[in-house]
Every structure is written in structure tokens, then in C-alpha cells.
Amino acid sequence: MELRHLKYFLAVAEELNFTKAAEKLFISQPPLSRQIMELEEELQAKLFTRNNKKVELTEAGKYFEKETKALFQNLERMSAKAKKIADNFSGEFRIAYISSIYSSVISELIKHLKIQFPYVNFKLFEISTTKQIDALEKSKIEMGIIRSPVQSPKIKSQLWFRDGFSLVYNKKAIQIKSENEILKLKDQTFVFFNKDYAPHYHEVLLELCAFYGFTPKIIHEANNINSIVQLVKNGLGISIVPSNIAKNNQDPEIGFMELKKVNLFTDVSLITSKEDDSEITKSAVDFLLNNISSR
């Protein structure tokens, strides 16, 4: 028995017409009939009843059709699995991240993976949380680094670290010594993430300001954390950013004040497909989870 016998059988079982099945397979009818007869002889079972008017599956034929379809589905799964295994040693691995968490640990991650998988082409993309979720669902990336929450039945999410918030300001333009003085900033111009770009994060920033007793005057918006910090440096406003940014910014013109009184945090999570069990994905996630302090 060969795969072509099963392929021919399924074509006839689906069409219940030898002429149409032959046309579908791009062969003539006599060879098709001969292949089906050979299959029936090998199985020692009649798969079809046929006369001048119609072709029907026997009970044995119905069972064989069901099992043959399952066999081909399993073959497709095996092929896809084999490709994934091969991609661990060659191919492409795409990692997306949000601008507010990029740090040296991501560079270290790529170095780590390159040692383990030297023939893999690793690619980094700076993408918003919402777009990362969509890209992962559509298999356009293999792993994402986002600010939670994430709600998708296709995605596995693991907390990487919990981040606090810090006020960021230009030291020459603003003089502030403690959190108790934050209310005096209520008339200052604020620079925030765009609401459509990061809706959940935008709402958290508004909650933070409400905690300190004011509604911020949001004049400038940006979709990149580095752009926000640059606008602050240029004296175009003040902002509130994840505390992780302060740890990775040593510019002497910029001041950071961690907001410790408010009990609000932002979770940074690693997201992968629930169906992805490749070694390269496991290695990437394990590396980041074991290097939280280096973020």
C-alpha cells in the first residue's frame, strides 16, 4: 500500500464519482479504478458499492475514509513539527519588544541564543503591546515582550518583572525634592504615550496623576519612550515613565524621582504561542527569567 492509493481513495470517497475524482486527480478513469481495486484487494475488503447510477461507501469504506483522513492530518502535523525542529538550527526567530523595556539584557539574550543556535537569523522589532499580540496570533513573531495585560486563547504569558513608575523632568526647568511637591506640577505640560498606541498604559498614568491630586495637561504625545525622554530633555514638558527607564538612563540633564507612595505597578511579560514548544523559544524565555536583575 502506498500513499497514492490512499490519496486516490479519498478523492473517490469525497466525489462518489470515478469520473469527477479522476478529473480532480488529473488522471484518466481506468488507472484510478485499477488503483482502487488494488487497494481493496490488499485490504481484502470492499470499500465502494457501484453501479451505473451511483457510487457509495460501504461500512468498511466509511471507516477507512475516517482513518485515512486522520492519517493525512497526522502527516501534516508531523511535517510541521519537523520543520519547527529544523528551525531550531536554521531559519529565523523574531523577537518583538516595547520601547520602554529595551536594555542591555536583550542584547545579551541575542548573544546567548547565537551561541546555542549559530545558524539562526535573529531579528528584533520594536512594536506596541497590541500589535505584538496580533503579530504573535498570526505567527509573524515567535516571542514578544509586552506590558500586560494580555487576553488571547492562543498566547502563553509569563511575568518577567513588575515595574514601578518614576517622574522624569529636566533638572534646569524643574526643581522638585520629594513626592510631597508633585501637586505643584499640576500646571506643567505633560508628555505621555499616545492613548491609541498604549491604551492600558495611558490609563495607568492618568490614575497616577489622580492619586497625587491633579489631572495632567497632556500637550505632547509620542509612541516611543526614547522620544518622550528626549522631549523632556528638550524642555517641552515632564512625564511619568517606568522606573526601569531611569536605571538605563544616565543623562545628567534629566532627573528621575521614583513614585513610591502610590501602589501602582506595570507588569512586563514574555509572550509566546501556546503551540510553540521549540527549544529555541524555551531557551530565550529561560534566559530572560534568569536575568531579571540585569534588565
Verbal overview:
- Belongs to the LysR transcriptional regulatory family.
- The protein has 295 residues and is α/β, with parallel strands linked by helices.
- It has three domains: 3-86, Winged helix-like DNA-binding domain superfamily/Winged helix DNA-binding domain (Arc Repressor Mutant, subunit A), CATH 1.10.10; 91-160 and 268-294, D-Maltodextrin-Binding Protein, domain 2 (3-Layer(aba) Sandwich), CATH 3.40.190.10; 165-264, 3-Layer(aba) Sandwich (D-Maltodextrin-Binding Protein, domain 2).
- Helix content is 42%, strand content 23%.
- It is built from ten helices and twelve strands.
- It has helices at residues 3-15, 18-25, 29-43, 59-87, 104-116, 129-137, 199-211, 225-233, 243-247, 279-289, and strands at 48-50, 55-57, 91-97, 120-126, 143-147, 155-163, 165-170, 189-193, 217-222, 239-242, 254-258, 266-273.
- The strands form four sheets. The protein has a five-stranded mixed sheet with strand order 4-3-5-12-6, with helices on both faces.
- α7 (199-211) links the parallel β8 and β9.
- The model has no long low-confidence stretch (mean pLDDT 88).
Secondary-structure map:
Layout: H1 3-15, H2 18-25, H3 29-43, E1 48-50, E2 55-57, H4 59-87, E3 91-97, H5 104-116, E4 120-126, H6 129-137, E5 143-147, E6 155-163, E7 165-170, E8 189-193, H7 199-211, E9 217-222, H8 225-233, E10 239-242, H9 243-247, E11 254-258, E12 266-273, H10 279-289
Parallel strand pairs: 3-4, 3-5, 8-9
Antiparallel strand pairs: 1-2, 5-12, 6-12, 7-10, 7-11
Helix pairs in contact: 1-2, 1-3, 1-4, 5-10
Domain HTH lysR-type: 1-58
GO molecular function: DNA binding; DNA-binding transcription factor activity
Family: Belongs to the LysR transcriptional regulatory family.
